[in-house]
Prior knowledge:
Low-confidence stretches: none
Oligomer: single chain
Number of helices: 13
Amino acid sequence: MTSLFGIVDCNNFYASCERVFDPSLEGKPIVVLSNNDGCIIARSNEAKALGLQMGQPLFEARELIEQNQVQVFSSNYELYGDMSSRVVETLTRFSPNVEVYSIDESFLDLGDFYRTDLNAYAREIRDTVGQWLGLPVAVGVAPTKTLAKIANRISKKPEKADGVLVLTDGRHIEAALRRTEAGDVWGIGRRYAKKLAGYGVHTAWDLRNVTDAFAKKHLTVVGLRTVRELRGEACIELETVPPAKQNICTSRSFGTAITEVDGIAEALTTHVIRCATKLRRQKSKAGAMTVFAMTSRFAQEGEVYSNCRTVTFDTPTDSEPELIRHALKALREIYRPGFRYRKTGLLLLDLVPADSVQLSLLDTVDREKHAQLMQTLDGLRERFGHGTVKYATQGTEEKWKNKQEKLSPCYTTRLEDLIRAK
Length: 422
């Protein structure tokens, strides 16, 4: 296990991605909206200073946005995902082992860099990402992942740190823990922070000094691991290979309400394809599926409806035609006419490794033929885009798609959206 961790966190990632390709946005307040342009899910520092809140509905913030000429964008996950991949590729130049923790955070193994000037090396990481990709990042370095998260958090605040903080000296670690609230420690959160406050534990330093018995009793084994990490004991390993998911879910709210089952089926088919693609990427197959459809939770009394249906397969599968057939059959069983549906989706369950599937004697599906078809489709989509090949049940109009009235171009993934120099 490494004895030194770094974490690189992209500042205001979604908003920063929008700025990269439009320099005129520099210094202006920016917000990025959720699916269907409903709520604020990302803010630039300028937007935060105006008092715009995370998760705030757009209609509530509209007056403040208009008064301060806040730049509003629909969420462009295709752009953000590609920029995230480019950040990770850049970070692999600084460490042989990188864990992608989230779309905007990655841990680095720096265990062999103790004899290096860590401050200079961390600044080189920050400057390289900034120069190559135009994204501002903060870098925290410490003997454990939990301490590295604290270093990263503090590095964003004082101007002296300038986005880089290395915590390897005991005195500096103590000072950092004393200025960090217990609720801000990675893995603690508000609920545990409130409970800890009742026992006089208010800061990360207080938490570091509780007994193992206290931590295990009040915070479970996971909390005990966090306490030991605060003491400098590396208990959380670097995960360079993400663990396989135990289930896979895809669902989206519709841009407009849908009343006909065929319209819902178009959306559900697209969700099945997304789930099946994720399933094959982690080399798994699903033994069961749950399909659901629902109206708005805020509809008037008598107009609210939701239902689901779980299907178990005789043989675990990752075949899109097979999954689509079962999903549409389940949808028609739960569909009730007369309702305005706002969301549908599915959950793949009972996942097993693709190379250890137990076949059924009654299986009538040509598994080899389906596997060849899936391999061909995956190749076409990877080369030409996910929408290159479609099933008839996906339709052509896609009226169910999310509202994205403020969507920026996909500058890095679509030829038609490439910036043109004049």
